[in-house]
Fold these 2 entries.
Entry 1:
Amino acid sequence: MTQQAKSPRRAGHGIKTPLLTVDSVLFSYHDKSLKILLVRRSSDPEKGKWGLPGGIVDIDIDDDIEATALRKLVEKTSVEPPYLDQLETIGNRGRDPRGWSVTVCYTALIAHQACAQHVSTVSDVRWVELDAALKMKLAFDHREIIGIARERQRQRALYSISSGYALAEEFTLAELQHLHELLIGKPIQKRSFRRRIEQAGLLIDTGKKRQEGGRPAALYRMKPESITHRFVRNLEAS
Amino acid sequence: MTQQAKSPRRAGHGIKTPLLTVDSVLFSYHDKSLKILLVRRSSDPEKGKWGLPGGIVDIDIDDDIEATALRKLVEKTSVEPPYLDQLETIGNRGRDPRGWSVTVCYTALIAHQACAQHVSTVSDVRWVELDAALKMKLAFDHREIIGIARERQRQRALYSISSGYALAEEFTLAELQHLHELLIGKPIQKRSFRRRIEQAGLLIDTGKKRQEGGRPAALYRMKPESITHRFVRNLEAS
DNA sequence: GCTCCTTAGTGACTATTAGACACTAAAAGA
DNA sequence: TCTTTTAGTGTCTAATAGTCACTAAGGAGC
């Protein structure tokens, strides 16, 4: 009796299709650290373990795969993230004890306070520091998926500021730079970082200031085009 | 009677899973033009129409999704491509008349002559110029998928030479440059193109020369690391 | 108010890498 | 030998990131 024979999914015309799920790596920057959202699994398999927010594609409810990702994220956070990007699809025989299964993975970004209240009221959803999550024993292959998402965000940080959607709606340039430094893993030249952003006109100056300990810092908001903008030259690679 | 109720796929534990397929956009450079491989569909739905090489994931045969992509490409070309990269996964209710379906798409590159003989012996497999393919009426959403693959290759051409795997095993710098010009859609400065490749040491000089009409050109081969290498600065965007 | 500390923001020079383009090199054919 | 063709290079310019010291604007201690 082989393992994968436990629960074959069989179509009317005789095609066995694997289980199809969606998992999202939802990043958020808070308290000067980068966190991701983890969920405690309430049912088998891997019941009780922490894993990524996601679940099975419901072809009666969801119009497309992205709809599944959003539905699951809204279930856990109560809000839709402003950034959602398909990461990679992983499918093989061994990743799920139920047999051949496929997960379509997404990277999502959100402001921490947009969902802080909802998350703090439940015990099965938690923000975990990225590096800590990568050391945890998680359900299925979710740790690998987080690693892939992190690496992709690291690469992107060299030529894009789209990761700014992980900050609060209004943020300082110092915060945006620190987030990039966390992703890249080394310090960035303040001058280079600010110059290219200003020249490309990627942020909206709210006119407001925020102060903590020194000169007040200007508060900015993301322009929508900052999601797609690519600088022609990378910051120094690590 | 609704359309998507025709053939529900239902798991042992009552989960309806969508049809799961893989499609590959296989590029190859030949006769100074960029072509992709199309296949005439031999069965319904869309029987008789041309579409991308691919098919249904067979969980009895395939160990993972990439194995399906390779298996289908070998069926049509008789060889495995040296470059295979996951592109995007598309899944929704409307793309296949059989109902909710998902396709995991790949970009593949191969030398034309590696499979020319096999392809030329069958009538249901054909190389089609990329621009022509984008004007054809193809099965399902395959034209859109080709458009996505093309755009991704265009972007990559600005900071990578991995597309060189669409050339013959040994090629001249002029050929590699022309391929990049086809992808980017505008001429490239010869000096810039060659300088960065030489400095990064991405090619192997075979020592051989090939001549056609003027001074003989040196023949090169791809180094494996040229797949992953990213130049820190893009060529001029179009 | 004055000095010092802290964080924000800028001026100005250097370094790296692509763009431009004319020049040389090596072959064939008249 | 001259012309034509394609391959390959020398060299200057332009764009953009790196470096780092400097100024700016606030608070705290005195």
Note: The domain at 167-226 of chain A is CATH 1.10.10.10 (Arc Repressor Mutant, subunit A).
Entry 2:
Amino acid sequence: MHVTFQLATEIEAALLVAAAAAGLADAADFKPDVRTAEARHGDFQANGVLGYAKARKLNPRAVAEQLVAALSPALRDASDVAIAGPGFINFTLKPAVLLAWLRQFGTAPALRAGAAAAHAGQTWVVDYSSPNTAKQMHVGHLRSAVIGEAICRLLEFTGAKVIRDNHLGDWGTQFGKLIYGYKRWADPAALAADAIEELERLYKLGNNATPDGSPELDEARAELVKLQQGDSENVALWQKFSDVSLAAFQKIYDRLGIRFDHNLGESFYNDKVERIYRELTETGLAQESEGALVVFHPEHPRFKTQPFIVRKADGASNYASTDLATAAYRAEHFKADGIVVVTDFRQADHFEQLYLTVRKWFAAKNYRLPELHHVTFGAVTGEDGKALKTRSGDVIRLKALLDEAEDRAYAIVLEKNPDLPEDERREIARIVGIGAVQYADLSQNRSSNYVFSWDKMLALDGNTAPYLLYAVARIHSIFRKAGVAPGDAAAEAGATSPETAAEISLARKLTKFPDAVRLAGESLRPHFLGLYLFELAGEYSSFNNADKVLVDEPAVRARRLLLCARTLLLLETGLGLLGLRTLTRM
RNA sequence: GUCCCCGUAGCUCAACUGGAUAGAGCACCUGCCUUCUAAGCAGGUGGUUGUGGGUUCGAUUCCCGCCGGGGACGCCA
């Protein structure tokens, strides 16, 4: 039997054929709207009949009956078809079809090939994490990094060439103060021990020593001017700041499984802004206002009066100028088909103005316009809704958060599995602890603020990474005991179609993986995949509890081993797409 | 003042972008380990989806008005 990766798409196509065959009035306008259904209704449901019938003042159930009568024999053989409610068409796949799908998409390459159609041949630039240099990363930097990496992996899996670009905050007035502090108070021993810690201290000293209106502030500004004019000493210092910062960031990124292709920060675009001023002016988009160069958007309720300032009155560039230059660079140099920027929601206005401007600018110059996306999330705050602080008043550092996560996970491992070797306990603690932190951000879809809580971030019960990892570990355990590798062809050879309620329920869930990946990829919301994996792990756990795998009957054993192998494949693949590592034992 | 986001069970969150009886976890209660890992499974208690209208076959979802929380609004990024 032939099955496709996206069964929903296959059913949708069959319904379109049926619409034409049934002679529906303007059948070409009929949109089947097939989606995954709640299990009690079937595997997939077509909702399109309702809207179609309503627009033409037809009885939706009668239209549904016409369509069902005209369905291809292949689809009628493959599924139970039922008309329900006001006019839904429900499709429940037969066990033999479930088995066929599981056999056809039984390997990682097969899954990847099936999913790759969505963004095949496209190049996407993803801009995420983007911390400021010379400062430690804190918990506020976590979400962009975790969500951004998951989006990268989803885009790659769905066929795109992904360019990971860390748009560092590595330019601006703060460097004058940092250089001022560095030249006076730098402690070589502290720099050697923990460079970024020392840079933070020097920045604070520099900042405190240069209050508004002071001659010290003029000196700090002079340092900045020297840097901008290419003074060799200051440029060398700036380079050193960048180097030690990136090295420190990479230690965090390594723990999160992140590696950037480029670190093109604001400094990279600093000399690419003249063109922006010129082209925005010559296309009539920008105008002088109070000495600055600004863009208004007359069609917009607020941006018709709220300016997008692309050049300051003193002639200097700002965030807007470099972001415009960045968009052009990504479109032209990387030939991006899509650009994704991941930041917290407070920058929503800025990006709305930016993208409005880019669209008009590119249209006026006849440049090829990539898809432009701003992926937002809520800010991380303390219990009081204000910026997050520890008891001592400092922000919580990302390193401390990850350390704490591993420590808590280690304590649980010691309690649950004291007999494992120490090395393995540590490895489990790393994967479970970091995974819990990642999943805390990937399991929810909220643009409201995120109130930080250690217990929430490091929760190990319920809808968390450990629950998913535990299901993975249990499946590995079964294969260890069976003495075969997951996916072993001989072990699965005699598999029959799923039969028991738990087998069928699990098999049905497995076939929904493509829909979860599609949904998460198209909407750039990884939590849809997280939700699916959680539900899949739940189905597996129920199955694991209800049906013993390693039984004597060869056909039953084979089909259950197949179900285990596919569950493992999809859980490991899916968790990998979210950026989590998995275990074989825990 | 203008505009944006958010408000769902005691708590933390879902709800496939308008679909069917709004679902999970935590907490609380009842069962299940001589049986592939109990970091688990089965079940129970818990809802006027902030609020009042509107749109329609159908609204947590869209529109309007309130209430509450957060945010952005001319030279920071």
Note: Chain A has a mean pLDDT of 93.
